[in-house]
Amino acid sequence: MKKLVAGMTALCASAATFAQGAPAAPPAPGSSLKIYGVADIALARYRTSGESKTAMHAGGSGSRLGFLASESLGDGWNVNARLEAGVNLDTGTSSSTNGNPSRVFSRQAYVELEHRAFGSLRLGRQQGPTYDFFPTYDPMLLPAMDAWGVVTTLGSPAPGVASGTGAPTGFLINPTGRTENTIGYTSPRIRGVQGRLSYSPNEGVATQAKLLEAGIDYVAGPLQVGLLYVKAGAISGAGALPATESNSEIAFGAKYQAGPVHPYFSYIRRESTDPTRRAGGGILNDNSETARLFGVAIPVSARGTVRMTYGLYSSGAANSDAKNYGVAYTYDVSRRLMLMAAVTHLSQEGAARYPVFQSPRPRAGESVDAVTAGLTWRF
Asked: What's the rounded Cα separation, in Å, for the pair 358 and 363?
């Protein structure tokens, strides 16, 4: 952590020196504007409690349209800006809005100052250490169907938000995690080690927690391991949203990409299931909430891969734990186009009524099954 803070200090100090010493109107050494996108769509069939549902939605990474502008400032410095809008390809509406339909660039909107020796500093709405943790340690790459996506979001459509009832709400550490009003720092990778740090103030909003995220990972040949820490500050609450104490989560991930089978593993622990303050003191549910996630990717041809995930969810509430497995086959038609087919199954204890993504809500204790097929094209 000291190295991260030192890196941020050096970055800011060097940037100030560079700006003060630069000519009034230097010619730009080089600039670029990249327009990019992802078209991601799947057709899914859900079945639970005697009900079935067919739905069209994102299957993998989510559709988007983005703009990335960059300019070289010389002496190893670059300034970048990204504006990225999420799109529901089935309806043409905005996605990744976190319940705020007025977001235009709902996925990312930030400006960044970077240096090859000091790292990068970002300001704005961004995908921080939490968001980057999952694609690194998820072999299936299909959050709607695999254990990484299903297990980490069980309990609530807004994972990590206190329920006010003592019931679980899933993890702040989840595959959809983005933060706004965020200051983010990424260090350069040195001897295989890279760190990331982000902080999001609540700007005085009584129902919004301050958020700290810190991640570090190490790469050595085919082995990669990572550690992630997230802390949400206490909130005073207002209206229907209750006051809460601070809460923290920690995750560990590992993968090994060599040989005929590529194994993956993650462990996540949430300090308190429901940190809502009691009227007489203390919190509603101080039981921890955990997930253990196992996966493998097995290349079966030059372009085809079988992917499997299995998740064990300990909810922190009585008789409300769950298990999930997913199996997928992906085929790379080209470097940019991937076809996929997948199945998933969720089983749960008698007091739990967890759905899977857009499935019908099951009766207590009943399982959920889903099958899907789709494509992801990057352009």
From this structure: 15
